[in-house]
Structures are given as structure tokens and as C-alpha cells.
Specification:
two-stranded antiparallel sheet; binds acetyl coenzyme *A; about 450 residues; mainly alpha
């Protein structure tokens, strides 16, 4: 097979042949297509990057039609069932699952950075009591950049790894302190001997009315939820991480930018919307009327549909399984029965079948978080903690890729052609009086 594609420019009747690699042509090859030799050359126009690969990556594979998600070649369901979050984080960062010795070193490297300066605590105390936890998280991660100037040495592997260990170690502390700050509770220091999710729960719930939620089964459920959220290839926040990282801003600043992108309701906030929707539906009897409204375009079935998955989101399947173990401890969150009935009715309805609309990761995650005592305002923060691992792996891949440069898209300019300045804008010609009369 000839791995090329030939394009005919009907304006000039010239033909161009471009090599094809991984079903992709190089956008720069298009620039060879010109009407006149001094033309700029052709570009592709792709708002929202609907069909543009911005990098080559070895981290995450998604087949949206088949509902497949793999990290470094391993199926998400196998990883979630058999591994811990730190093991999968190691895999995503290093490319291979750790040996017992590597795992011990990895845990030690993260634990050593599980602490934050007193100044950071004071910084966080400056937030108002009702500050959104994502706002606190984004700004505090950015503030960490001022504490670790060595992170600016982005080309050094040693410094890259230092920053990676620091961010993975500190992000759950910032998240938990943000929560406690909003509740007026004192900060709980991390406990280094606990598992990653267990320690997060310890910092969230210790010396609080929700102490009983420090439960090993719930910690394992959170560990699984963390695994499911580690990476999802070139989504909006990962793209922000790579774009900011490409300017060689340090990884704390790039992670803050990625977290800011995650904060938007079209990205990390849908699970909160699912809970609101279930509250509004109220009971099973109201589902048919709700579905009718969705089909008439009056509202959306939140937690359904995905830009990439046109089949069941494999993460939603795992989350549904995890829910059962959580409810054995917390008691059944009634919203799960409502959600399952909603799913059953939607998946037997031609509107959803024909549009390939299936539950996504957010359909069940909010229900579990709520059962675990976590408030909707915290949901995006819970997404950011594990996703930081994916952002950092993608950032490191970018920095170490010799083909990458500062991210700088082109535009199609559709504004005015050149035009002269109005006379009144000749420098010095405009008097105070003229300014007054034109306003
Ligand atoms: N409820 C009802 N109809 C829907 C839904 C939904 N949740 N999602 C898509 N559709 C319909 C659209 O109206 C459209 O119908 P039409 O062809 O008759 O016009 C068709 O399905 C195709 O939908 P698009 O909007 O083209 O799909 P797109 O890929 O642009 O959007 C998105 C994907 C944003 C996720 C969308 O499905 C949606 O809004 N879902 C609800 C919000 C949600 O759950 N977001 C979380 C995504 S997962 C994540 O980010 C972690």
C-alpha cells in the first residue's frame, strides 16, 4: 500500500502528494499548496481542535466507538480492579508498572513532599469562608511556584521529577485544607503511613463531625475513583497544561492553568449538574415526563453523551460497580436507584440509541461522592487530585519531545483590510475640547 495521499487543487489543477503516518498528514505539508509562489500557503481551519492531533503520545489510548480506555496499554478496568492509585500514577508517569522496590521508592519520594510551608497555610487563611474550593486550589498551586524556583529548570530530568513528586504529594493537602478552611475547621497534618486516598480522607475528616467516613472500604473506593480519573488524553485541561508548559513556564504554573481549565462546567463540573438534575426529577414516576422534556430539547440528560465515547464510557461502568461497595458502608444513596432507572429508560429509547448517548463518567460519580460525605463544591477538586498525575505525565512528555515547540496556533483573519487612522487621531491634534465634544 502506498502510504501517501494526493490532493488536487482545483484552483490551479496542481497535484500534491503527502506522506501519511498513523492516518495523519502533517499540517505543515498543506503550506506547499499555493496559487502563487509568494502565497502564504494553505492552512487547516479547526476551531475547538475537532480533528487536529497536537502531539504524539504514549500515555493514554481511547477508542470512543468501542468504549476502550487504556493507560500505557493496560485496560482501565484491570488497573482499577487490581492496582492502587500510586501504582497507576507510577505507570502513567514512568511508562511501566513499578516493581516492589520502585514502588517503595516512589511512595517515599511522594511522602517526603507531603507537607506544605506554614506560609502556604497562612496564604490559604486569606480566602473568604465561602471561597470556591477550585479557586483556592488553582491559586495555591500557582503560589507554590514561588517556593520552588528550581522547578523553573524544566529541561533537567531531576528537577522534573522533583516537581512531579512535590505536586502529587501536596495537591491532596491543599484540597483538604481548602475544604477545612470553608468549614472553619483546623488543618490536619498528613499522615505519612496511610495510603494516598486514606490520607486524604484523614486530612478531610479527622476531628470533624464526619470522622466515621474515615473507613478503609471508602478509602479503597476513592482510590479506584482516583485511578479512573488520572488521564484522558488531550482533553481541555491537558491541552492547557501542554500549551502553558510549552512556554517553559514551571510545572506548578502549568498545573494551576490546567486546574483552571478543569474548573469550567463544561469540563470538570458535570457531576455536580447530575445531582441537581436527580434532585429536580425527585422520584421514578417523574422520569417519563423528564425524558419527554429532554427529547423535546427542553433540557439535557446530564451525565449522558460524550465528545469521544459513542459507546458506554468504561469509567462509568467501573464507578457503578464501586457504588455498591460504598453503599454497604454508608447506606444506599436513594439517588442511585433513580439514576439506574433513568439509565434503563434512556437506553431503551430510540432518541438516545440513535444518537449513541450513554452514561459518561459523571453520571454516577457525584452519587458516590455524595454518599461519601463530599459536597458538590468539592467534586471538581476530587477530579483535579488524580488528574494532576495525567497533566504531569503529559507535560513531561511534551518537554522531552524534540519535535515540540511553543504552542502557537494560526488564525484566519477576517477583520478589516488596512485603513487610515481618522484625522482626529493624529498625535497631538486632538485637543481637550475635541475630546469632550466627541463623548
Ligand atoms: N441529553 C440529551 N441530548 C443530548 C445529550 C444529552 N446529555 N448529549 C447530546 N445530545 C444530543 C444533542 O442534542 C444532539 O442532538 P441532535 O443531533 O438532534 O442535534 C446529539 O445528541 C449530538 O450531541 P452533540 O451536542 O453534537 O455532542 P457533543 O459531542 O458536541 O457533546 C457533550 C458532548 C458536551 C458531553 C454532550 O453530550 C452533553 O452536553 N452532555 C451532558 C453534559 C455532560 O454530561 N458532560 C460531561 C462529559 S464527560 C467529561 O467531561 C468528564
Amino acid at each position: 500500500m502506498d502510504n501517501t495521499v494526493t490532493v488536487t487543487d482545483n484552483r490551479t489543477e496542481k497535484q500534491y502528494t503527502f506522506p501519511v503516518t498513523h492516518d495523519t498528514i502533517r499540517a505543515m505539508d498543506l503550506r506547499k499548496i499555493k496559487v502563487n509562489p509568494d502565497d502564504f500557503g494553505m492552512m487547516s481551519y479547526d476551531p475547538a481542535f475537532m480533528n487536529t492531533a497536537s502531539c504524539q503520545s504514549k500515555i493514554t489510548f481511547i477508542d470512543g466507538d468501542k468504549g476502550i480506555l487504556r493507560y500505557r496499554g493496560y485496560d482501565i478496568a484491570d488497573l482499577a480492579e487490581h492496582c492502587t492509585f500510586p501504582q497507576v500514577a507510577y505507570l502513567v508517569i514512568h511508562g511501566e508498572l513499578p516493581t516492589p522496590e520502585q514502588e517503595a521508592e516512589w511512595l517515599a519520594a511522594i511522602r517526603i513532599h507531603m507537607g506544605i510551608f506554614e506560609n502556604i497555610k497562612k496564604f490559604m487563611e486569606g480566602f473568604r469562608y465561602d471561597a470556591h474550593p477550585m479557586g483556592m486550589l488553582v491559586s495555591t498551586i500557582a503560589a507554590l511556584s514561588t517556593f520552588y524556583p528550581d522547578a523553573k529548570n524544566v529541561r533537567s530530568h531531576e528537577n522534573q521529577m522533583h516537581s512531579i513528586h512535590r505536586i502529587i504529594g501536596k495537591i491532596p493537602i491543599i484540597a483538604a485544607y481548602g475544604y477545612r478552611h470553608s468549614k472553619g475547621l483546623d488543618y490536619i497534618a498528613p499522615e505519612q503511613n496511610l495510603g494516598y486516598a486514606e490520607n486524604f480522607m484523614h486530612m478531610m475528616w479527622d476531628r470533624s463531625p464526619l470522622q466515621h467516613l474515615k473507613h478503609p472500604v471508602l478509602a479503597r473506593a476513592l482510590d479506584v475513583l482516583f485511578i479512573l480519573h488520572i488521564d484522558h488524553e488531550q482533553n481541555c485541561s491537558t491541552n492547557a497544561m501542554r500549551a502553558v508548559g510549552s512556554s517553559e513556564a514551571d510545572p506548578f504554573l502549568s498545573t494551576a492553568a490546567a486546574a483552571a481549565a478543569l474548573a469550567g462546567p463544561l469540563h470538570g463540573g458535570a457531576n455536580e449538574a447530575v445531582l441537581k438534575m436527580l434532585d429536580e426529577i425527585g422520584s421514578k414516576e417523574n422520569i417519563p415526563a423528564f425524558i419527554k422534556g429532554v427529547k423535546e430539547g427542553k433540557e439535557k440528560l446530564m451525565g449522558f453523551g460524550h465528545r469521544v465515547y459513542k459507546n458506554y464510557d468504561p469509567r462509568a461502568r467501573m464507578i457503578k460497580k464501586t457504588a455498591e461497595s460504598v453503599f454497604e458502608i454508608t447506606g444506599r444513596n436513594k439517588k442511585i436507584d433513580l439514576a439506574m432507572e433513568l439509565e434503563r429508560i434512556a437506553l431503551s429509547d430510540d432518541y438516545f440509541i440513535s444518537r449513541k448517548l450513554y452514561p459518561n463518567v459523571d453520571f454516577y460519580s457525584g452519587i458516590i461522592y455524595e454518599a461519601m460525605g463530599l459536597e458538590p463544591k468539592m467534586f471538581t477538586v476530587l477530579f483535579a487530585i488524580p488528574r494532576a498525575v495525567g497533566w504531569l505525565a503529559q507535560w513531561q512528555e511534551l518537554i522531552n519531545d524534540p519535535e515540540q515547540k511553543i504552542a502557537r496556533p494560526r488564525q484566519v483573519y477576517i477583520g478589516y483590510d488596512q485603513r487610515p487612522l481618522p484625522d482626529s487621531y493624529t498625535y497631538g491634534a486632538r485637543t481637550e475640547e475635541a475630546l469632550v465634544s466627541t463623548h
